[in-house]
Amino acid sequence: MLYREAGQFKASYAADQAIFPIAQDRVLMAILLVVAAVVVPLTATQYLYTAILIPSLILALAAIGLNILTGYCGQVSLGTGGFMAVGAYTAYNLFIRVPELNLLLVLLAAGAMAALVGVIFGIPSLRIKGFYLAVATLAAQFFLDWVFARVPWLYNYSPSGSVGVPDLYVFGFPVITPTQRYLFILAIVALMALVAKNLVRSSVGRAWMAIRDMDIAAEIIGIRPLQTKLSAFAVSSFYAGVSGALWAFLHLKSWEPAAFDINRSFSLLFMIIIGGLGSILGSFIGAAFILLVPIFLNQVPPALGIPLSTATISHLEFMIFGALIIFFLIVEPHGLARLWQIGKEKLRLWPFPH
Amino acid sequence: MTRRLLATAGAAVVLAAAAVLPDPAWAQANEQFMPVLVYRTGPYAVNGIPFADGYSDYLNMLNERDGGINGVKLVIEECETGYATDRGVECYERLKGKGPTGAALFNPLSTGITYALMDRAPVDKIPVITMGYGRTEAADGSVVPWAFPILGTYWSAADIAMNYISKEVGGVAKLKGKRIALVYHDSPYGKEPIPVLRKLAQDYGFRFDELPVTHPGVEQKATWLQIRQNRPDYVLLWGWGVMNSTSIKEAAAVNFPRERMVGVWWSGAEPDVRPGGDQSKGYKALALHTTGSGATAHEDIRRFVYDRGKGKGKREEIGEVLYNRGMMNAVLATEAIRTAQERYGKKPLTGEQVRWGIENLNITEARIQDLGLVGMMRPVKLSCSDHEGGSRARVHQWDGQKWVILTDWIEANQKMLRPMVEAAAKKYGEEKKITARDCAKTS
Question: What is the ipTM of this complex?
Answer without folding.
Answer: 0.85
